[in-house]
Amino acid sequence: MSCCDCQGKGQEELNLIEQFPEKREQLEAYIESLDISDDREKNRGFLIQSLHKAQDIFGYLPLSVQLFVADKLKLHLSEVYGVISFYSYFTDKPVGKYKINVCTGTACFVKGAGAILEEFKRYLNIECGETSRDRKFSLGALRCVGACSLAPVVMVNEKVYGKVSTKMVPDIISECK
Amino acid sequence: MINLTINDTPVSVEENATILQAAAKIGIRIPTLCHFELDCFSIEHRTGSCRICVVEVEGRRNLAPACCTPVNEDMVVKTNTIRAINARRTMLDLILSDHPKECLTCEKNGDCELQNLASEMDLHHVMYEGEMSTYKIDLACNAIVRDLNKCIMCRRCETACNDVQTVGILSGVGRGFDAVVAPAAMMPLNETKCVFCGQCVAACPVGALTEQNNKYQVWQALNQKGKHVIVQTAPAVRVAIGEEFGMDPGSIATGKLVAGLRMLGFDKVFDTDFAADLTIMEETTELIERLTKNENLPILTSCCPGWVKFLEHQFPELVYMPSTAKSPQQMFGAIAKSYYAEKLGKKPEDIICVSVMPCLAKKYEASREEFAPEGVKDVDLVISTRELADMFKEAGIQLEKLEDKEYDNPLGESTGAAIIFGASGGVLEAALRTAADWLTGEDIKDIDFNAVRGLEGIKEATVNVAGTDVKVAVTSGLGNARKVLEKIQKGEAHYHAIEIMACPGGCLNGGGQPYNHGDSDILEKRKEAIYTADSDLPIRKSHENPHIKKLYDDYLEKPGSKLAHKLLHTHYTPRKNW
Amino acid sequence: MIDSVDKLTQRTADLQGRTQAGTQILVSMGTCGVAAGAAPVLDALKSEIANRKLENAVKIVETGCMGLCHCEPSIEILDSESNKSFTYGKVKPEDAGKILDNLKDIAAGMTTVDRTWYYPELEENTENKIQARIVLKNSGRINPEILDDYLANDGYTALAKVLTKMQPQDVIDEITASGLRGRGGGGFPTGMKWSFAAAQKSDEKYMICNADEGDPGAFMDRAVLEGDPHAVLEAMAIAGYAIGANHGIIYIRAEYPLAIQRLQIAIAQAEEEGLLGDNIFGSGFNFKLELKYGAGAFVCGEETALIHSIEGKRGEPTFKPPFPAVSGLWKKPTIVNNVETYANVPAIIRRGAGWFKGIGTEKSAGTKVFALAGKVKDVGLVEVPMGTKLRDIIFGLGGGIEFDKKFKAVQTGGPSGGCIKADKLDTPIDYDNLIALGSMMGSGGMIVMDEDDCMVNIAKFFLEFTLDESCGKCTPCRVGNKRLYEMLEEICEGKGTMETLNKLRNLSHTIKDTALCGLGQTSPNPILSTMINFEDEYLAHVQNHSCPAGVCTKLITYEINDNCVGCTLCARNCPVDCISGERKGLHVIDQSKCIKCGVCYSACKFHAIDRK
Fold first, then answer.
1. Across the interface, do C575 and A122 touch by the CB < 8 Å criterion?
2. Taking the model in full, what pTM does it have?
3. How many whole angstroms separate alpha carbon A139 and alpha carbon A125?
4. A157: region left, alpha or beta (phi > 0 left; psi from -120 to 50 alpha)
5. ipTM value
6. What percent of chain B has pLDDT above 70?
7. Are residues C185 and C287 in the same domain?
8. Do C529 and C571 share a domain, yes or no?
9. Contact status of A81 with chain B (Cβ, < 8 Å)
């Protein structure tokens, strides 16, 4: 990863999209395959899927990537940022190698998800929505993965841990290698 | 027509009317906050989000927002039931619970719609107190201050910035309690493509968006020993400042304005109108040159710094198009610090040049690098009409009671052509008056170009000047400018000259003018006042201004001369589009 | 290409007449099955079949969710000769041999699961089953990735009937007569909604499927999309024909990768066979479908917000009118229905409005799928006729409360719903009864709570959700819900007063009365319903500064009593090492370090820890 924690400073971040020309090309090819025109309203209809693609490719959406998408779709940067900041799926901050998500859907909540989340916060020493300094872990909460029978559930990247107890937290963390 | 009853009073209104409009018809003003309309520009901001205007509608489960609920036949509306009143008060309570209570020291004190509501609705304490939003105040640019702690999410600024102006730097950011209106990545305005037109400030009902206040610096300047402090007043200031002193909208307060400025202690009180005449000399020369050669057309006016910045950011490939003539404010500064300074026998740095402008972008314009040759700014300080009114009030100057006074010379004399710079269409009309005379070599009497007057956003006309058909367009409001520019880019429209003003209606509705709070009438009256002032003046053509003639004879030689170019012309720079 | 009804009829007949392999093993491969370890079970079965060279005799079918979440991984054995079937739960890969040894009968030592449902479209309810599966008819029975499986179950025959034998108005009349109401929230009559859009004259109309399931305890729509995607496609085409739309959009959560994949496959299959696209069945009707992805915003369940999201904007609702049926996506007439609503449509067309109306109650026809979860023994997806009693679902299908604790409440309707207490368990569930109980149908989450749940804390949980998900547009939702949450926090920390309760109630009512969209208007429901039904708990927090359920950490302390035998179990389990004591000696909790997680309390086997 190239970019430092330079949130909000577009100038310094421009490197990121320049640093990965093959990723940029991939995104460019995707956006150009869409039916982009001079009609900004219609172009905006492609914004969310373009952002999904961009986040798939780059892992997150720093300002440089946002600007790239905005230019391609002929939109204002503010519109793109307004959308990213609205939807919880998008993030403009880098995420860790291991994305630990504690399900806090109702079923998991009544079965003690809150305590588990607290325990992860304590062990990783980060808050919900943050990434550890070494970029190894990101901690998040998500709403219902649909495995209510296994409540409380924790997801680490694609892996599902069911019937998690606070005791299992250190083990789950140490399994991330 | 639709028939309904409001508070047991029958009323009939047009289809598609809202409850708010129907109520107004029978003399009931339902309080609103997020709602904003300016009929004269078809600006309509009806999000129904503040929920202050809720009323009871018979047969409806919940309360209805009057501002966006259309009327139905036989609708029964009650605006003042205890249910509606309590809900309204709760909404106000909630807004205030996340709003600083520092009204006494707020820039917007006395002009705040929220403050007025709290007073009208007799709210004496906030019941639902809790956590308040905390944001860093954006003081970084020299035109606009953004204090998001005061933002009430009415989104009026967003409509102004995106829909009306299409500048597009403001968006809703975040969601829920943390939602706020801001530029991308919460950047400060000066890192964005903001053009500082101030239409967001004009739309903001509270103190979240205000001008960068330069009043204190003006007080300091006035009290600085050894400095010669002069002031220039823009055309649109004189037809609006009276509103701040209880004068009727549309009052022409030129003489009182001069008197008040002199009382404040300015060494000389000059007029930007003088420089407007000078602008016409230079710009018309350029227009005629481009017309005769039939190249580089259309010529675009360059008086408006908001518009110029908009072009630099959003149409960088067109930066060759505007006239190279500086704006009147900057021409005035350049002449004041050269010609006038020499006459006075003073060094440019010993003159402090203050502008009073209807505009916030002028604050930015004065700070542009190219307007500070050898490090001395042509214009040192810029205050808005509102700020000047505040200074008068602070000094105890009761403007409405002052005896009219005359501007000083040599930079105070002006013509009717200059004063109409304050209304959309004025610059072009002034240029046409001069061009017609110059091209025919006659003194043409019929000089009212009515086709380019009025508050419409886009006006087009073909004017016969000395036997040639000149196709002109006048746009105000940057959204309209965008439409015309895009047509030009696509080759769908061909003009010889276009006047562009950033603010809808031109400078009379500038971002620094007294707040209109959505009253179109005020703007109409300011416009009428400008044209009245024009027709009342004995000289109505810029090239007939005796002091302008003298300036050329004594100093500049002729329009477009080498010295004129050095002092009165500028260049434009493509800028980033974000 | 199935470009005519005749070809479809032929294809269906061929498929239905084909000889099945001797035995089919249906493996539930929905998200929850996979999460519980269905993949290794599938692999083990496959390799065991290969080892035994039984490929011709035993066929494996990977299906969507069977709804038996509590005993995943689950498999069903169908024997075509004996026409017998039985279901195993909690299958382990090592069971594969045992299963294949006993294909005709239940293998010893296996967990079996009774079938608690019948299929109203196929059979009579002769055994008085609680569940009636219309929406979930194919889920868990067919391979959702194989079009023929759907066709063999009368797939696309409803679309064929509509396009060749019915006028658009007939379709709307049929749906109206069936009494189908929107399954996503408010329960608006579907036929009436369609008729609004049908009445509009426009060059373009849109049919949207809301698959952005965001209720934090509901996964019905996902199960349908994963288990029976073609049903939704078929229904959307039918609806498109009815209102005159040629363009359909499925707006789906990006967090549902499996459902997305299955939909993509299904759309490609349908297009290839001409079941979607131009001139379907030679009728001249064109219908194309595309997927649009949500990006994590619950409020996009509100139709105007959803439309804005498809348009690439922030998902903020706007004031209605204009209603989407008049001016929706790209300002064209648009209908938004949710997945479950659509999934009912083909069956209604196949069997007729009268048949559908005969199921459920007078005002709420048909069935409703619920995601039954929380403190019940048998968590799962259930589909019951409207009018079924809550008790039958929770105690009949759910098997009662886990660990035989005491039932306290059941929450329906997610963040928009309310908590229903024990004395109302015999209420037949339908739209109107739930609203009368201060809750609502919502999308179908049904979370059961026991004596260990603090109802104030539950209300706070839902408010936190709303707070997170509020778009922030209107004052009551943006600021009002924040204040409600803060008051609930105060109460849970023992700082609330009677005045707080009053303010909480008043503000809740005002928010309901003033908020712009459905999310805001219903957000206070969890508070109001718990305040009415569990007032004593609120009073205990406020007057006695205690939390009767022992949940609110600020109001409880853990102390070790004389029962302690010094086993050290509590100290070893304590995550913050705040319990000290010698082996075989009385232990002590350092209250300054205790985080009140309750681990010691549940670990202790000697009732030596008191929660006060």
1. yes
2. 0.94
3. 10
4. left
5. 0.94
6. 100
7. yes
8. no
9. yes
